[in-house]
Design goal:
two-stranded antiparallel ribbon; disordered N terminus
Length: 408
């Protein structure tokens, strides 16, 4: 009976890994994309993404007028914690309610014939998994929607981002359901250039494996220490706290990622508004304007994780600079050469922009870290602490603190 019960958790694991199979297929096909100025590949929406978009459109959208930068970081953190707590409690409740029937049937029909056991166990497991997944998706979608309402992103989308695969609605749907973002090349910059596609898939798979591994370790740890029952209750019921814990963890992970993406979206808009207001870009030489795209392009490639924040930043600067494809904007050596050619004021501007781009996904990759000294040169002691601070602020949801460091 024990091995049969293990099969149910293996089935749950397989179901939760289907999303990562989609990631793998998209990454394998990425190399065939055409090199156009801004090439959206033909992105056929998966059933899950359509599901997410449909339900996001059902949620009531209030007429919001507030500016997120008028809300203190402490208040933003408090509101996000409230959203997170509600999502965690809801997902924990759903996890316990949906796993309990499976465990109860496994225990109750333990000594029944295989036909009777599998009829009950298989049927109850399929129904409970379907119900659990549905409600977990709804909880995640509602949580990321509430974060977006807090940021008031619907009122701040640029015209070229209102439709298409990188609109707020699409980003929210993919974030909530942990779906991959479609590959996108801008001015020939390839975000996947230095990414190991197999490693991305394996890392995602290992994350999902933790749920099955936790259950396995806990169950057999109890079996070898206390036996098949604990206080008269089958140790199979340990599946309830395991499922509850991981459901809560996944919702928190989704909300953290939604906060990072939406804060990045807001900061990109804020940065562009500041640049337009100060007319800083108009004062740059043609060489420095190309350097701006190379600063962002190299940060995108060296990030090695294809985060949508980086793509949004690329799209914004493509719209601002009006540059043509063909100047190798993701070539690191050309970026360094550009900084040597421009004047001191423009060099400082490019280093500021590179700092923002490096930090924009909330982490600094090993490749980025090893390249900072070459990029910062004699200003390394000034810019290095800044990129560390900005990364910290973005990762921990300190929007206004991050905005202060995004001034160029």
């Amino acid at each position: 009976m024990r091995w049969i019960f293990l099969c149910s958790f293996f089935c749950r694991f397989i179901a939760k890994c289907e999303v990562y199979y989609e990631v793998y297929l998209i990454l394998l096909n990425q190399g065939e994309l055409p090199k156009t100025t801004a090439s959206y590949p033909e992105h056929k929406l998966s059933l899950l993404e359509k599901f997410g978009l449909y339900h996001l459109n059902l949620f009531y959208q209030e007429e919001l007028t507030h500016n997120v930068f008028d809300i203190s970081d402490a208040e933003l953190a408090r509101r996000v914690r409230k959203i997170s707590l509600k999502g965690v409690l809801s997902s924990v409740f759903i996890g316990v309610v949906c796993v309990f029937p499976t465990v109860w049937v496994a225990v109750y029909f333990a000594n029944a014939s295989l036909l009777v056991y599998w009829s009950w166990f298989g049927g109850v497991t399929l129904v409970s998994v379907a119900i659990e997944f549905y409600f977990l998706f709804i909880i995640a979608l509602k949580a990321v929607f509430e974060v977006s309402e807090l940021i008031n992103m619907h009122a701040r989308q640029k015209d070229f981002l209102k439709n298409g695969v990188f609109s707020v609605q699409h980003i929210l749907a993919r974030t909530a359901l942990e779906l991959p973002d479609p590959p996108l090349k801008v001015l020939g910059i390839d975000p996947f250039e230095r990414i190991s596609k197999k490693n991305l898939f394996v890392l995602g798979l290992l994350y999902k494996l933790k749920i099955t591994a936790t259950n396995f370790v806990l169950k057999y740890g109890l079996k070898f220490t206390v036996g098949n029952t604990l206080f008269g209750t089958s140790i199979l019921y340990e599946a309830l706290p395991v499922e509850a814990f991981w459901n809560g963890e996944v919702i928190q992970r989704v909300i953290r990622e939604a906060r990072l993406r939406l804060f990045g979206f807001a900061l990109a808009n804020h940065l562009v508004d500041e640049l337009l207001h100060e007319k800083a870009l108009y004062e740059l030489s043609p060489e420095a304007r190309v350097g701006c795209m190379r600063a962002v392009g190299n940060a995108v490639v060296m990030a090695q994780n294809y985060h949508p924040n980086m793509v949004i930043l690329l799209l914004h600067f493509k719209g601002l600079l009006h540059l043509e494809e063909g100047q190798q904007y993701d070539d690191w050596n050309l970026f360094l050469e550009t900084m040597n050619k421009v004047n001191e004021k423009e060099r400082s501007f490019l280093r500021n922009l590179f700092t923002i781009a490096v930090a924009f996904d909330g982490k600094i990759s090993k490749l980025e870290a090893s390249s900072l000294r070459a990029a910062y040169g004699d200003q390394h002691d000034f810019f290095h602490p800044r990129v560390i601070q900005l990364t910290h602020h973005l990762k921990h949801g300190e929007l206004n603190a991050a905005a202060e460091l995004c001034k160029i």
